[in-house]
Design brief:
heterodimer, A: alpha+beta, B: Rossmann fold, Immunoglobulin-like, 3 domains, 8-stranded mixed sheet, 4-stranded antiparallel sheet, 17 helices
Amino acid sequence: MKRKIMQLVAAFAVLLLAGCGSSGDDAPAIRFTGEWHLTQWNGAAPTEFDAYVVFNEDRTFAIYQQIEQIGYQSFSGRWAYDGKLLTGIYDDAIPWGSDYEVVLDETGDVLTLTSQTSIGEVSVYRRTTVPEEIKGSAIPSTASRTEQPRLL
Amino acid sequence: MITKKWLLCAAILLTACTNDAFDRSEANPLPEPVARKIVNTSADAVEGSLLVYFDDAAIADLEAAQTIATRAAVPATRAGIATVDEALEPLSVHALRRLFPCNPRTEERTRAAGLHKWYVVDFAAEVDLDEAAIRLAKVAEVERIQFNTRMHKTNAGDYHIRPLKAAATVEPTTRAAAAPFNDPHLSRQWHYINAGPTQNCPTHRLGADIHADAAWPIAAGNPKVVVAVVDEGVKYTHPDLAANMWTNPGEQQNGKDDDGNGGYVDDLHGYNFVTRGAISWDKGEVNDKGEQVGDSGHGTHIAGTIAAVNNNGTGVCGIAGGTGKNDGVRIMSCQIFSGGRGGTTDVIAEAIKYAADNGASILSCSFGLKSGDVLSDEAYDRSFRAEIDAVEYFIGTKNCEAVDGGIVIYAAGNEGKTPCCYPGAHSNYIAVTSISGDMLPAYYTNYGPGSNIAAPGGDYSISTDYASSLILSTMPSELNEGDDYAFMQGTSMACPHVTGVAALGLSYALDCGKTFTVDQFKSMLLTSVNDLDGYLESGTKKTAAGTLTLRDYRKQMGTGLIDAYQLLMQIEGTPCLRAKVGTLQLLPLTNYFGKSATNLTYTTVEMAQEEMDKLGITERPTIAYGKLRIQCTKPGVARITVRAIAGGDKLGTDTTMGGMEISKEFAIIARSVQTENGGWL
């Protein structure tokens, strides 16, 4: 119950932040909207998994990831940035696993997100268009590829 | 006379001292080195035939003698070696021929495997077989003698063959509407898509099938995959098989060996190794007891399960039968049973090598010895040397871009006994047990050590409605009251379900451009399963053979029930296993070892120190309660290898029957960022 309340509070906070952003108070000097591909995670190229993140101008986001499942899975939700930390919440009211410190390089093409967890995860993204075949084939996180339920 | 008494003593000793009916190693009164050379006994052996393996020194003379005979257009009857010919002299030899005929395209590989040194001696049937073997074993140039023993279709006579028209019901036993094909009788193939309980069979369980409905939209076959049905002849003109028959590209129907592949004349769709001629399927024969011993339609039924043509508006579906666009896998008929004859070592070994030399990458073998005839790999390896050599050659031959060798699949046997029968029980081959539509063991299935995986094989005792209880597939109308389709049951029918799924897997691997080793592919196949053991905790099943105590079958049926969809998913790729940093966890291995993962017996967890360091692991990961017990202290990705036993709780060794080792290597991603829904951020 407590967790649920926290999630609702977080959702509310994000909506508030999103509301502020849309009023023209464009707090972030960093323009990280766009489509990004994870190229490095904790100092190494992610050869075993893959992730694309899309930050839209309207403060919505989409993730296309292939980690624990075969084929790409998609997630969506809303993001907010207060000039210091990037936060977000998924459409199913689950907040991101962490807030992130954001660094965009001079070219504007390399984005580094550092998680605010006890041991920080450093993810480096390069600005890249998400391939259409990935967008088209990704399974929404709430769906299952197996259409027939297996009562086993 | 003395020799006869000696052999009688040997027979008594053999009966008393060993359970391996074909193994003469434990009690052999013959002097060394003669005894060592004779690898099996004459029990159930063909009269007037011996298999002889010569040493290197003899080969040149033997081949010279063969060449001379070939030029004279007569069979060779002499070896061209004085000592050998002296031993052959009293046998009235009809022919001395290579067991594996020379195929110029594959001769180099054949010689590298030593197969060119196997010869068959055909001689007068009235000559005492044991005496003949001893005579030849005394010759220095002879390395081994093997009696030409018989294997049997898995329990012929108990298939409960019923024509399709005998099915009483029109009630569908399949959620056929869930499948993308229009074959009218798919509605009676519960073994592909089980509809669950029906009026005629209330014990049916949803999911007691191979999960074809989910697999077919992803893959349905590929003509580059060739499956050899080593069995009775396949009716290659069958309306639901003809389009998916393998066709030898260099051969014509003209009474000649056009492609020069070893003297096989007109081998357009395979070959009849029993008669050394045209494939046949309709030679019914009755023995002196009035029993049907001839062709039963066994091979045609098996072929249909693997690759009956799909979506052709006709008949039934096959697991890898394509989509109706000439895209099914191809069936090669390697006929080893013909009209009540065959099943002998020479025929089986030659057929398997032919399959390797002509493009097959999977063998479907629904035959074997009896349960208990052979009780260890070591005994089988020693007594069935020619078969072993041929199968090893097949496994070592790459005929499909998706896998670096051959996959060999056998039936477990139909005697309702433990252990599984050889050759399937061999730890290098896959042995298939049988379940019925109630997700429970069929009454006849062999089980226990040597069994690797289960598949639907039917069980007539669960319903009087054949469409609910038996396996529906193609059948020669000549043997089936004019009907092209029939129901059957047996591990003989379960075996081609695994074969078909394996063929589907190779098809999809080709589509995806993926390549695997034979061991990798076998590991994927044997872990693409749904759990059976959960249904075998307690209770009984009433069957035609009495009441089965289900607990007796727990962990004895193999890894679980084959699932085609899971195999295709494994072929697509192995996902990461997510772990949380800072927490001691038990992680499920379902993605890697199938839905039986918690019930499998795991042997080792291997993780190099360097990989452990990547995740800050200080205590080596282990398996607990069927899950991976691991504690990571920093984020990262590392690789781990987990090994398990496919079938039972102990590995087969040379001397003890048991399961096959399977292994999976996968990546663990440890994260400090954790979300409930698994999202990346």
